[in-house]
From TrEMBL:
Organism listed in the record: Peterkaempfera bronchialis
Gene it is expressed from: hutI
Annotated metabolic or biological route of this protein: Amino-acid degradation; L-histidine degradation into L-glutamate; N-formimidoyl-L-glutamate from L-histidine: step 3/3
One MF annotation (Gene Ontology) recorded for this entry: imidazolonepropionase activity
EC number(s) from the headed UniProt entry: 3.5.2.7
Major place of residence: cytoplasm
Lineage of producing organism: Bacteria, Bacillati, Actinomycetota, Actinomycetes, Kitasatosporales
Annotated cofactor note: Binds 1 zinc or iron ion per subunit.
Entry's family note: Belongs to the metallo-dependent hydrolases superfamily. HutI family.
Name recorded for this polypeptide: Imidazolonepropionase
Class in the EC hierarchy, top level: hydrolase
Amino acid sequence: MTTTLITGISSLVTNDEAQGSGPLGLLAEAAVVLDGDRIAWVGPASRAPAADTAHDAGGRAALPGFVDSHAHLVFAGDRTAEFNARMSGQPYRAGGIRTTVAATRAATDAALDANVARLVREALLQGTTVLECKSGYGLTVEDEARALRIAARHTPETTYLGAHVVAPEYADDPAGYVDLVTGPMLDACAPHARWVDAFCERGAFDADQARAVLTAGAARGLTPRLHANQLGHGPGVRLAVELGAASADHCTHLDDADVAALASSATVATLLPGAEFSTRAAYPDARRLLDAGATVALSTDCNPGSSFTTSMPFCIAVAVREMGMTPDEAVHAATAGGARALRRTDVGRIAPGARADLVLLDAPSHVHLAYRPGVPLVSAVWRGGVREV
Ligand SMILES: [Zn+2]
């Protein structure tokens, strides 16, 4: 095993209050030692131990790799025209998903795999070292299982989302589709998935249907997460909390009871500002959730219809400008928050024993992620101890 000393870090986000100041556990003039795929040592550069090789960060800021806990990457086709129409005044509707379903079913395995690989690389170049990936554009037994087999080649964080929308073949029989999703489709998908998810929204699945899907998945060993309260107020958030879901995702339209339920549970509120940006909708109120004591994660929701971005720095900048988050809170949500939403303790922090996922910025502080929006600041990325960028 080779050890690498990274020194010359002007400001290090550890997300460990035992190691530095504030919730980010900030350390000035820091150094980190990587040992194989793990972090072996963190502390002041003046006390750094020797290592086999050294890397001088040159006064750059460092932080944990971003943990993007919500993405839909197994798809084919292009929806530029739909985006363009929407930006010309037409509203977003959940049914647009069916456009991508048709293109995805028609695509080869190789084409789908190449698209996932391209997007994972694109995210990595922007500092993302852990990426969740959902199915949901197949909506047949074989197409959903295929999507998860392909996703599993790129990440262990695979999510069965057969309940994305009702498959077109079942347009007149949504109950029959839920039977498929909780029966034969689940049988085919469970071996390739860690999580189960549903789109609980008017036009997709109601609370009883979403509960049936998540409960059936949980019975097969999958842990629930839920698309909830995106397009309007609904029962999704409280269902997620009731079922002990790892995360309620979107949380755009919340009442006081939803906020209280999230704040008093282990269910993370995952906010996806790329979706509001790309649908010209009102942003979720992160300030309200944070002030109530909820755990907040930020993720991209990368998908071809409503949020075609892989950029966590973009999401951080929007969250700070539009959602009432401080730069510290947004960076925490994009790293430690995502890790919580995936129930991971090995990522989202820089501490001895954690996975060696580390990002260097061409900036003296993590605050530049919001202060310099749209600027490519990521200068180096280690993932599992391997220098990838
Ligand atoms: Zn989504």
